[in-house]
Design a protein that fits this description.
294 residues, alpha+beta, Thiol Ester Dehydrase, Chain A, seven-stranded antiparallel sheet, 7 strands, 34% helix, elongated, HotDog_dom_sf, Thioestr_dom, PTE-AB_protein
């Protein structure tokens, strides 16, 4: 009977399928010993709504960053970007138009307010002048720097010159306009040569006996691109004076002090210069008002 009872109990004992219980994970101790219990952890997948929210947040963050970078780049473009793709600018107004007059006046007011101008205006042993201010209007049209290149967008106003009374040095402040470019936005190298020739020439000629001279040599080193529509400062210095030969050096810098170009020039007084001694060149260049007229 006992054997029969065991057989019946065995036949009615429920058999569990291997898949009756499903565990996500089982944790055992590092030693592999079973402590009589198992820990089950369920991994929850994020819902579709949370995924969409995260994606939207990332998109908004990236968009805000991109707009900020673009705005800053437009307001304060890096140097390389403006060299490659300068900002567009309208054509320069006509000299005698209302817009042209306003532009010229604005440049003049700004020029006189520059710290370097205020400094040299009261410097002991120096005098101030504006070259070509007394030039005959009938002749000014045929002068490159006093006529042809004068006007808004070019040389809007005459350069302001501060010279030592002994004519050994000079400081020239001038504005180079937007329409003097080779590569767009950069002043043409030939234009830089013109203003350096004018600057060194003034210093040289006023040291010659007859105040008449011609350029024999002008050697220029271009140190950095000269941006258009800015004020520049040219400093000239007498290096040598020997008979009819004068050597003058010059440096052209931005208002911030960046060296843009430097030059050395040799001027010679022609043998026929005495025939033009009364041509008024010294007055046109702006000589020292304390000196008596010849």
């Amino acid at each position: 009977m006992q054997s029969l009872s065991r057989t019946i109990r065995s036949s009615v004992t429920p058999r569990l399928s291997p898949h009756s219980f499903r565990f996500t994970s089982t944790h055992r101790t590092p030693s592999g010993a079973h402590h009589g219990h198992e820990t089950h952890r369920t991994h929850h997948r994020p819902s579709g709504g949370k995924k969409a929210f995260d994606a939207l947040a990332k998109t908004l963050l990236f968009g805000t960053f991109a707009i900020s970078v673009y705005t800053l780049g437009a307001l304060y473009p890096p140097d390389l970007a403006t060299f490659i793709s300068p900002r567009s600018a309208p054509a320069s107004p006509h000299l005698h138009s209302e817009e042209g007059k306003e532009h010229t006046e604005e440049i003049e007011v700004t020029l006189k307010s520059l710290p370097i101008v205020k400094e040299y205006a009261v410097k002991e042993g120096w005098y101030t002048c504006r070259p070509y201010a007394t030039m005959d209007p009938a002749k000014i049209h045929h002068s490159l720097t006093a006529g042809t290149l004068r006007g808004p967008g070019r040389l809007a106003v005459p350069p302001l010159v501060f010279a030592k009374e002994d004519e050994s040095e000079a400081v020239i402040v001038l504005h180079l306009g937007r329409s003097l470019c080779g590569h767009d936005g950069i002043v043409h190298g030939g234009m830089v040569g013109v203003v350096l020739d004018e600057a060194t020439g003034r210093n040289a000629l006023l040291n010659l006996p007859t105040k008449i001279g011609v350029t024999a040599n002008l050697n220029i080193n271009y140190r950095a691109p000269t941006r258009a529509n800015q004020f520049v400062v040219i400093r000239t210095k007498l290096q040598e004076l020997k008979g009819r030969k004068v050597v003058v050096s010059a440096e052209m810098k931005s208002l911030e002090g960046e060296l843009l170009a430097d030059a050395t020039a040799i001027y010679i007084e022609p043998k026929w210069a005495p025939l033009l001694a009364n041509s008024g060149v010294a007055e046109l260049l702006g000589k020292n008002p304390k000196q008596a007229k010849p």
